[in-house]
Amino acid sequence: MKWITRSNVKVDRVACPWLIRRLVDPAAEFLFVPEERLLDAARECRATPFDAPRLPAVELNHRGARCTFEAILDDFGVSDPVLRRLGRIVRAADVTGQERVAAEGLGLRAIAEGFAMTGIADGERLTRQFPVYDALYAYCGQRRAAQFVVLRDWPSSLLTSW
Q1: pLDDT of 9 over the 60 cut
Q2: Phi, psi angle pair for 63, to nearest 5°
Q3: Crossing angle, helix 12-19 and helix 68-75, to 10 degrees?
């Protein structure tokens, strides 16, 4: 199946293809076009458009404060708490004003911006950044299983010096 989005991919437009390949369509093909060509190109190529918040005709899109990654989880009935946690990180990185939903989002945003600054083609950005999402998925799964000590519960002797 073909999927299409705006060119110059960053956070959500890398995270969504990662999710689509791992959850929806392992053989997915991704196309990248200028935003003003997205709907026409989607029709011409028979591709499913995604992540174009300024185009209300695109169904797989931001919804309120939530990102497209989360819309895909909703539309495909995914309740996996690890993917839900990863979705919050993607939202924090991608949606201005949502940074507070996951502290890791600012780091992910910096990584995505750095890849954009390299000038590499969109398809290559996917190839190079998919391992970042694999790592974040592992991180989110590990965090879920681990027992973390809340800092305020640590003995004060551990907090006074290194």
Answers
A1: yes
A2: -135, 105
A3: 20
* 149 — pLDDT class (breaks 50, 70, 90): very low
Which residues, including other chains, have CB under 8 Å from residue 68's CB and lie 6 or more apart? 12, 13, 16, 50, 51, 60, 61, 62
Instruction: Please state the separation of Cα 146 from the chain's center in Å.
Output: 23
Instruction: Give the integer Cα–Cα distance in Å for 26 and 20.
Output: 7
What ranges do the domains of the chain cover? Answer: 2-144
What is this structure's pTM?
0.86
The three-state DSSP-derived secondary structure of 103-156 is: CCHHHHHHHHHHHHHHCCCHHHHHHHHHHHHHHHHHHHHHHHHCCCCCHHHCCH
